[in-house]
Design goal:
With 127 residues, the protein is mostly helical. Helix content is 54%, strand content 3%. Strands 1-2 form a two-stranded antiparallel ribbon. It comes from Pseudaquabacterium terrae.
């Protein structure tokens, strides 16, 4: 078993229920979007930024599958939905270019998602 396999970081899906859905989270979000708060201090629309990076990764592909994936990226309503589209994007990139290119582009996208260190112990060595 290679050492790179054991040291690979796991990319996890974002939380199903973001903290902004709690009463306190909604109140905080409402206050942050208030017109009396300077625009520079308002939170950034993270979903729009991540969608844009997904589109950039897909820009130089012209296949019908790439167009369909672009549509799904546009319709994604959460970071969790985008997380699920990563495997389709990886497959298109690896087929069109190379596995190394696909991994490089995916590394740029994966920074938007939570990570978890690899498991240790006997269960992690079962493959």
């Amino acid at each position: 078993m290679s050492s790179t396999l054991l040291s690979r970081t796991e990319i996890c899906p974002p939380a199903l229920w973001p903290s902004s859905l709690t009463l306190w989270g909604r109140a905080k979000r409402w206050l942050q979007r208030s017109p009396w708060m300077p625009a520079a201090q308002r939170p950034v629309n993270r979903l729009a930024l991540v969608k844009n990076e997904f589109r950039i990764s897909l820009d130089d592909l012209a296949s019908s599958d790439a167009v369909a994936l672009g549509d799904r990226i546009e319709r994604a309503r959460s970071l969790r939905e985008l997380w699920h589209l990563r495997s389709l994007l990886y497959g298109l990139l690896a087929t069109a270019f190379s596995q190394a290119e696909a991994e490089e582009r995916m590394a740029r996208l994966n920074r938007h998602f939570p990570t978890r260190a690899p498991r240790s112990g006997p269960a992690s060595q079962i493959i």
